[in-house]
Specification:
The protein is mostly helical and about 70 residues long. It is built from three helices and no strands. The relative contact order is 0.10.
Length: about 70
C-alpha cells in the first residue's frame, strides 16, 4: 500500500457546489491502476548501437557480448 500527500490548486472561479467532483477528478491521471501503453524510446538494438559508438574503447570488449540481432 502506498500513501501520498498532495496539494491541489483549483481555479478561483471553481463553484463551491463543484468542489467535490473537481477534487475527485484531479488525481485521476496519477492513478496507479491506470493502464497505459508501454513507452519505449529506443529499441534494444538502437541502444546497443549507440553504446558501441559512445563508450570508451576499453568498454567495447564488454559490449561485444551483446549480439546485434
Amino acid at each position: 500500500m502506498v500513501h501520498f500527500a498532495a496539494t491541489v490548486a483549483l481555479r478561483g472561479e471553481t463553484p463551491f457546489d463543484d468542489l467535490d467532483r473537481t477534487l475527485a477528478a484531479a488525481p485521476a491521471p496519477f492513478d496507479e491502476e491506470i493502464e497505459v501503453p508501454r513507452y519505449v524510446e529506443f529499441t534494444r538494438l538502437e541502444l546497443i548501437a549507440h553504446a558501441k559508438k559512445a563508450y570508451h574503447p576499453r568498454h567495447l570488449e564488454w559490449l561485444q557480448n551483446f549480439a546485434d540481432a
